Amino acid sequence: MSELPRTLARSWSSTLKLPKSTFPARVTPADQTKYLKRCTDDLYAWQRRERPADRSFVLHDGPPYANGDLHIGHALNKILKDIICRVQLGLGNRIRYVPGWDCHGLPIELKALEARKDTLQEKGPAVIRKVARDLAERTVKEQMKGFRRFAVMADWENHWKTMDKDFEKRQLGVFREMVEKGLIYRRFKPVYWSPSTGTALAEAELEYKDDHISTAAFVKFPLIKVPLYLEQNPLLKGRTISAVIWTTTPWTLPANAVIGVHPALEYTIVESAAHGYLLVAQSRLEYLAKTLKGDLSVIVPGILGSDLADRTLYQPLFKASDSEPQPIIAADFVTADSGTGLVHCAPGHGMDDYVACAARGISAFAPVDDNGNFTELAMPDDPKRLSGKNVLREGNAAVLEHIESLGQLLGKHKYEHKYPYDWRSKLPIIIRATEQWFADVADIRAHALKALEGVDFVPASGKQRLANFVKNRSEWCISRQRAWGVPIPALYHRGTGEAVLTRESVSHIMNVIDDRGIDAWWTDDANDETWIPPGLRETSGPGYKRGADTMDVWFDSGTSWAEIETPYGDHGYPADVYLEGTDQHRGWFQSGLLTFVSHQLTFGRTSSPLAPFKTLITHGFTLDEEGRKMSKSIGNILHPQTIMDGTLLPPLKQKKGKAKRQLVNQEPVYDALGPDVLRLWVASSDYTRDVVIGRQVLQTVHTSLHKYRVTFKVLLGALSDFRPQNQTPYDQLLLVDRIALLHLSEMVLAARGACEKFEFYKATNAVNRWANLEFSSFYMEAIKDRLYTYAENSPSRLAAQTTLFQIYNHLQEVLAPITPLLVEETWEHTPETIKNLYEHPLRRVVMDPAREWQETSLGTDYQDIVAVHSVIKTIQEKARSLKQVGSSLQSFVHIRLPNGTDNSSVLRRYLDELADIFVVSSVTLGETDEAIPDAITKAEWQHSEEYELPNGKKGTVYVFSPQASKCPRCWRYVISEEEAAAERVCNRCEEVVEGLNESR
C-alpha cells in the first residue's frame, strides 16, 4: 500500500497529466511579423544555399501591372504561386521564383499624366517617360510590400521589371532575332484602333461588349454593268438594277472598294414598288420584304454568285464623280445568315475585306484619323461634309444623311450586337488601316502548336483554348503609338519614308542604347547621327530619322522567359510552371509562346520546339457571394489587407419591419489572422473556375484555420513530456492508435497527391475532414483518458503519444505550403527534445507515411466500430436531452452482436479497448438470442437502438445508467458505492498515484 491512502480527501487534478503548452490561443501582430520573415525571406535564402542545384523548380512570374493597389485577384494569383513553390520545396527541390512587374503601356502613361496634370506644362516624350517611370517605381514598391505580407516566399531583392535596362536589352535581343529570321515586317493594313487612346491594339487588348448598339442600314448601289445574259434579258431592258447591302458600320461606306458575293449562293433580281429593281440573295427575300414593309416581285431568279463575280460593276457613292466603277467579287466569307447576302467591303476597315481585296491588287483606303474622325479624303467632291466628324457618333449619321440624299438608303434601324472595346478606356474601337509593324505568326504557328503538345495543362481545357487562339492568328500587330515603352528600333528615310530594320541596324541602335540609355531615343537631337549605322549615313540628302513607335506591352512581358538563366532544366523548358488568369490565353501565355518559339527557330530548332512552360495553369476571376464581379461601383470589393487584419465588417442582416438592410454592429467578424486566413481561402477554392469570396466564405475559412490551431495546441500539450526516443513500436500500439495512423496515412497521401496535381482544394478538404471527424471526434475522444489519467511512462500512454507525435509531424508537413506562419509558430513552441532531433518542418523533405500503417483490414474494423459508435452517440444525445446523462462516461453499453458473428469480429477481438474507444465506462457483449442482462432491465434508465454493419448485418445497442460509482480521479464509473463514500479511487488510478508518490 502506498503512503498516499486511497481514502485521503484531496484534489486529484494535481496527479493528472493534463496537457501543458506555451502555444497561445491566438497569435499577436508582433509575432506575425517575426514568423513572416522566418518563413519567407529567411526560408527562401536557406533553400537557395542548401538545396541541390540539380533539383531546381522554376515558377516564372506572370508580371502584374504596376498600376494601382492590390486587389483580391492579386492575392489569389500570388498565393497560388507560393503554395506551388512550397509544395515543391517539400519534395526536396530548389525553388527559383523571381517576381516581376509589367511597367510599360498606356494605363500607366495616362495615370501618371493625370496625377501631374496641374504641374506639367508640356507633355513631350521625355516628360511622359519620366512621370510614367516614377509612377511605376512607386507602384512596384507598394505592390511588393503587399505581396510580401501574403507570406510569399520569393527572391524579392532580385525582382525584375520590364523597364529595367537589362530586361529591355534582352527584349531587344529577342526582337533582333525575329528581324533576322524575317518575322518582323511593316505594312499598311487594317488593325484594331482605339480612337479614345490613339493607338493600335492587339486582340488581347480588347473586351467584347454584347449589348453594343449600332445604327444598321440597307443601302443600294446602282449597277453600271451586269453579265451579258442579264443585260440582254428583255425583262431588264431600260431598268436600273441596284445591289443591296446591309451594314452595321455605315461609317465605313466612304472606304468601300468592292461588293462581295458568295460564288455558290443563288441571287435574284426583284422589283420593289418603292425602290425599283434590287439584287439580293434569294434566301433573304422574305427577310428583306419584311424589313422594307412591302411586297417584292421576283423578276429574274437563280443567278449564281459566280456569274456575277468579276462581271458586274457598280457606281460608288462617296468617291469623286469621275471615279471608276467598282467590281462585285467572289468572297468565301460572305453568307446568307443575315443581311442581304451581298457584303460591302472596305479593305481599310475590315480584316477579311483586306485579304480579299489584296488578292486582287486593291489597296486599303481609310479616310479616318487617329482620333476616329473623318479626313477630307472621305468625300473628295465635298470635303467639309464629313471632315472632322467622329465616325462612331455624328460621322455615322452624316454618312447616312448623304446616302439618303442620293436616294440610295432603303432603311435604317438600331441593332444590338457584340462589339470590341478598348480594355483600358472601356470605349469602342474601330478597325482602321495604318502603317504598323507586325510579327508574322503564320510562319511560326505550326511550330507553336507543336510546342504545346508536350505541355501539361491545368485545367485540361486550357490546351484547346490556347491552341484556338494561336490557330486563329496569322499576325501580331506589335507597334503602339505611345511614348512610354520600348522603342521599335526602326529608322525611316526622311524623303521616302522607307523603313530600315535589319539585324545590323538593330544591333547598332542597341549599342547606342547601352551607352546612352533608352530614354535618349526620344531625348537626343533629331539630327543626331550617332543612332544611324555608318552605312546609312549620307553625305548629302535628307538622311534618316528615328521612329516614334513603341512595342506592344505583350511583347515586353512575352519575352520575360529570357530573364531565366540558361541552360534550362533537364526537360529543356525555361519554366516548370506558368500560372495566370484565363484571360492570359490570348495575352501573356500566347506572347510568351510565340516569342520563345521564334527564338528557337532562329537557332535552328525546328523539329521539336518547346513552349517556355512545362505546365500551364490558369485560374478564374474573383466574385462576391452573389456571383458578381468585384466592382467599385457595386461596392462589393474586398481588400486583402482588411481580411488579414480582421477588420472586415460582419454580414448585413435584415431588421424586423425594415425593408432596407442595415448593419447590426461594427465589430470584426473574426480575429486578425494574418496571411494564413487569406492563404487558406485560396487553397480551399477550386481556382480553375471563378472563385467566390465574402463574409460567409471567410467565416468558414476562419473556422477551419481555428480548428488547425486548436489541433496543434492539443498536440503540443499532449507531447510536452514526450521523448521521441521512447516511441512505441507499431506492433505494440493499441487498435485505436493504429486506426489513427491509417487515417493519418490516408489524409497525408490524399493531400500530397492533390497538391502535386495542383488541386489544393482537395488537399484542404482532406485535412478538414480528417481534423473534424477522424482526429477530433474519434481519436482524441478515445485517448483522453489514456493521456490524462495513466502514468507518464505507461505503455498505453506512450503508445498514444507516439501516435500523436506522428500526427504532429505529418500535419506540419501537410499544412506547410498552405499556412506557413501557423507551422512556423508551432515550431517556436515545439519541445526542445523534439527540435533537437528533427528538421524544421518548413525545411523538411516530406516523409512518406510508413507502409505498415496502411493496413486495409483496419479500415473494415473502423467502419464496424463507427457503425456502433454512431448509434451510441445518438442514444446518449437522447438521454442527455432527458437530463439522464451528462458526460458520456456516465453510460454503460451492452452490444448484442448480429447472428453468426465469429471471433474475427473487431468487437470481439478488442472488447477490452471498446470502453475507451466509445468513451463510456463499460462495454459488454452478448448474442442476439441471449436474454437481456439484468443490469439493463434494472437500470435507472436505458435506451436501445438497432445498428447495421457495413456488411448488412444488424444488431442492437443498449445504453443504460452506470451500475457503479464514479472514480473521483478518472471520472469513470468503475468503483463501488462503499469506495465512493470513502472517496477512494479505482484500482488503475491507485497504481498511478502510488507511482507518483514513490517517484517523490
TrEMBL record:
Q: Give the CDD domains listed for this entry.
A: Anticodon_Ia_Ile_BEm
Principal EC category:
ligase
The residue ranges of the Methionyl/Valyl/Leucyl/Isoleucyl-tRNA synthetase anticodon-binding domain are 737-891
Alphabetical list of Gene3D superfamilies matching this protein: 1.10.730.20, HUPs, Ile-tRNA synthetase CP2 domain-like, Valyl/Leucyl/Isoleucyl-tRNA synthetase, editing domain
Instruction: Indicate the transmembrane segments per the record.
Output: none
InterPro entries linked = aa-tRNA-synth_I_CS (IPR001412), aa-tRNA-synth_Ia (IPR002300), Anticodon_Ile_BEm (IPR033708), Ile-tRNA-ligase (IPR002301), Ile-tRNA-ligase_type1 (IPR023585), Ile-tRNA_ligase (IPR050081), M/V/L/I-tRNA-synth_anticd-bd (IPR013155), Rossmann-like_a/b/a_fold (IPR014729)
Entry GO MF terms? aminoacyl-tRNA ligase activity
Tell me the ranges covered by the Aminoacyl-tRNA synthetase class Ia domain, including all copies: 41-692
Q: Which keywords fit this entry according to its UniProt record?
A: Aminoacyl-tRNA synthetase, ATP-binding, Ligase, Nucleotide-binding, Protein biosynthesis
Pfam families, per the entry: Anticodon_1, tRNA-synt_1
Instruction: List the residue ranges forming a coiled coil, or say none.
Output: none
Stated EC number for the protein is: 6.1.1.5
Entry similarity comment: Belongs to the class-I aminoacyl-tRNA synthetase family.
List the HAMAP family hit by this protein, alphabetically: Ile_tRNA_synth_type1 (MF_02002)
**What name has this protein been given in UniProt?**
isoleucine--tRNA ligase
State the organism named in the record.
Aspergillus lucknowensis
